[in-house]
Automatic annotation (TrEMBL):
This is Glutaredoxin family protein. Residues 198-213 have a biased composition (Low complexity). PROSITE patterns: GLUTAREDOXIN_2. InterPro entries: DUF4124 (IPR025392), Glutaredoxin (IPR002109), Thioredoxin-like_sf (IPR036249).
């Protein structure tokens, strides 16, 4: 038999469950109303009380998004950040299918780029690829053609786990055309501009003026009578 103490002890848990259900029903970020009736009983609801005499307090409750991606384990996330994996494939390519299967079975997060158009091929050539497919890029390392042993070695050298560590429900990214994938813009060389102190700037200007060729003196016939050289 439940005592009054048990009911008081379990009340916060019931209130938390109520708030969670209300937030899920109303959306990821919802407003929950809290008020007391004439008898002093506290109520929670997704709508304000019907009586205008009852003052309702608005509570903002945030629930996690149902389709939010799960975080990767630390070891895997560190490898992805240090050496991202790109897979370039084309249609009707058995070796491409085998390479994709290897990455999925090992649990390697990767971005797939399809090479079907002339623009895609141009993008592949800019990366140093040729006509043989697939092309696997693990960080700055590139491997042409599918060789399971070489691919595993490259992934292990980049500190990717040997065993699959993807969280439950993980979804691999959808393939996108290589020509339409954004590229990191090349960084032009930047020349540093040094702002000189006033004294140093004046000295530099004087030195520059001293190095300029001097104009020849005017001819003697054109000088005034009292002018001396």
């Amino acid at each position: 038999m439940r005592t009054a103490r048990d009911r008081i002890h379990n009340r916060p848990r019931a209130l938390l469950a109520c708030l969670a259900l209300l937030s899920v029903a109303a959306g990821a970020s919802a407003q929950v109303y809290k008020w007391r009736d004439e008898r002093g009983v506290t109520h929670y609801g997704d709508k304000p009380p019907a009586s205008s005499r009852q003052h309702a307090e608005v509570l903002k409750v945030t629930a996690p998004a149902p389709n939010a991606p799960a975080a990767l384990p630390y070891e895997l996330a560190r490898a992805v950040q240090a050496s991202p994996v790109l897979l370039y494939t084309t249609a009707r390519c058995d070796a491409c299918d085998q390479g994709r299967t290897l990455l999925r079975e090992r649990g390697i997060p990767f971005q797939e780029r399809t090479v079907d158009s002339a623009e895609d091929q141009q993008q592949l050539r800019l990366l140093g690829g040729g006509n043989e497919m697939p092309l696997l890029a693990v960080g700055s390392r590139k491997l042409t053609g599918f060789q399971a042993a070489a691919w595993h070695e490259a992934l292990s050298a980049a500190a990717y786990p040997r065993q699959k560590m993807l969280p439950p429900g993980y979804q691999f990214a959808a393939p996108v055309p290589a020509g339409g994938a954004p590229m990191a813009p090349a960084t032009p060389p930047v020349r540093a501009r040094i702002k000189m102190a006033p004294d140093a700037a004046a000295a530099a200007a004087a030195q520059t003026a001293a190095q300029q060729p001097r104009s020849p003196p005017p001819a003697a016939g054109n000088a005034p009578p009292d002018f001396q050289f």
